[in-house]
Structure formats: structure tokens, C-alpha cells
Input
Amino acid sequence: MSNNTISSTETLTNYQPEVIFLEEGAEAYLLAQKVLSLLPNVPRQSFQDMTTLTEQMRASSYDVFGQGKKILALSRFKGDFLKKCPGISPGMVCCNYYVVNLAKNCIYDCSYCFLQDFLGNNPMQVAYVNVEDLLGELEQVFTQYPDRNFRVGTGELTDSLALDSIVPYTASLLPFFNRQSNAVLELKTKSDQIENLLNHSDPTNVIVSWSLNPQTIIDLEEKGTPGLTQRLEAARACLEKGYRIGFHFDPIIIIPGWEEAYRQLVEVLCDTLPIEKVEWVSLGSFRYRPSLKTIIKSRHPDTRLFTSEHLPSKDGKFRYLRPLRNQAYETIRGYLKSRSDALSIYLCMETQEIWEGVTGKTPRSDEKLDQFFDL
Ligand code: SF4
Output
């Protein structure tokens, strides 16, 4: 395997892994067979134990996390798929929802990505192929709690769509969520891999959301990802197909000239799409655990993430100082509201004080969001 890292200008539109590692027994699953049929020329090796495989990689590379992105392990997930969003932590208000981890690690290489730290001991890119087990588990939970509304995301430990052309999870997820009466699927992405979505006939109960940043920040900090125009074109196509769409301005990164950069981002967004049809925009500022900082500086020496001062919050994560966060939220919220006063805007992973300072209310007092938070 090569030691090349992803350059800041290279966009991974036709990603193929350098090798597929196939866990013994995984080939019995339909999804594994599909992946192998879509990648007939990629070398494959079988393995029994992920830990041994990871140790072998660690011995052969100085950047195991980066190398982990170049391989694809197909494995069977053996625990419960559905989990409450881990963003709930002391002093934080979270966009309260559920996550299923179908895959981990990601083909892109954003400098701020928390996975670099979180997956430090287990950096292999893995796609779990036992989707039948996931759907069985979800069916059981949704039926057991018919009065709850479940909002389920797949993009916590990976990008929800980046691999969808070669690991087509949406082929199983979309028809399943189409049938639910109390659950919505959120696909969170920076990708433009929407072909399976456009080929599917029913957009019911599916929200696709894109993380956005000004192109300058994409160039600096989001290596390998599709550019702003590609993301917005993908969003427009999904909207036209009938999908509900949302956007995350997250992480907001304060660089010199950030006000103008985010003003232009809002202008481009609103000129590309009918903004009144967007479900919501969430805002979140750059945050990190102390252990991540060293990794970022070593893996991304050109980063501009640390040009401003950061202080620890109650949850132990470092954030921009509160007045600066407030100013960023108020400024960007103002740009968005000037284009659509009715647009729902919420803050992700922020304190109660910031929520009240910026929006004048807590999330529970917002009627439109109550349908998401009423769990
Ligand atoms: S797209 Fe998301 S998961 Fe992938 S590298 Fe960037 S931050 Fe990490």
C-alpha cells in the first residue's frame, strides 16, 4: 500500500479501495456480494480477526488512520446498531436523535475530523454487511415504541453517502424507512454520490443533509471532499426528486475574513436552491477534545484551525471563546434570516446559554423542532 496522503485539491469522486479485506463468513451476506461484484478488480484478502489485521497495518505505516481510508474491510457487526446520539453531555443541548453505525472511518480526510482520535485504536475503514440484522432491530424498536418519533442518522462515524456507489446501503434503507410511520432517516454527507437516491422512486421519510463551508475552508480543511458547488447541485437534485433536505454549517471555522466568506456561502446557497423549501440549517462551531489537537497538527501541518484561541467547555471540549461563538452564530443566522425569515435554524452541541443568547429560546420551545425532539 502506498503512503500517499490525500492532497488538498484532489476530490475523491471515483473512490476505489486499494484492497478489500473480507471477514470470514461475511461473503454470505447479500451486501458483501454486491460490493464484490461492483469492485471486481480490487484485490481481496480474507481475515479472521480485526485486531490482528489492525496490528499488521500499524507495523507497515506511520499514518494508520490515513492508510485505513485506503482499504475497505467488510465485516459483520455483532452488537446493537441503534444508539442514542452521543452528543448528549454535561451542559450541552444536543440535537437529540439516534445513530446507527453501519460503517466507520471515511474516504475523505477533513483536518478537524474527530474520528482521527476516536478511531485511533481501530482506524480501519469498515462497512458492516449484515444490513438484515439492522433492519430487524429497527423494526422491533419502532414497533415497540409506536408513540415515539425516531430520527435516525447514519453519519456519526462516517459520511452517510460517500461510499454509496460501491456499498449501496441506501438500496436497503430507503424502502425500509419509506414504510415507517414513526421514523425518519437522516443521511448526512459532504458527498455528491446521490445516484441511488435519484434512482429510487419514493422519498418518503428521508432527509438528506449536507455539511457546508465556504470554498476557502473546504480547500484548506476538507481534503478529498466535493466542492461547494457539487454539494449544492446534489442537494438541488435531491430536492427536485422530492427528498427533504437540510444543511449543517458545521464546523464553523473562524479564519480572517470569515464574515464575508460565510456571507457569500449563504448567498450561493440561497441562489442555488429555493431556501424556503429547506427543512432546517444547523450551526455548530469547531470543537475538539485536547487529544485531537496533537493528531491534527501532525496529520495536517498546514491547518488554520488553531489560529484563534479556544477554551474548554463543561463537556471538556475546546471551543472558541463564548463571545466569538455568539458573534459567529448571530452573524450567520442574520445572513440566513435575511434571505428567509421562516427558515428553521438550530444550534448543534451548544450550551443552553448560547442557545438562549442567539435564538432567544431553548430548543424545546421551538414548535417545528419539537417534532424532532419529542422522543
Ligand atoms: S466527511 Fe466527516 S467523517 Fe469524513 S473525514 Fe470529513 S468530518 Fe470525518
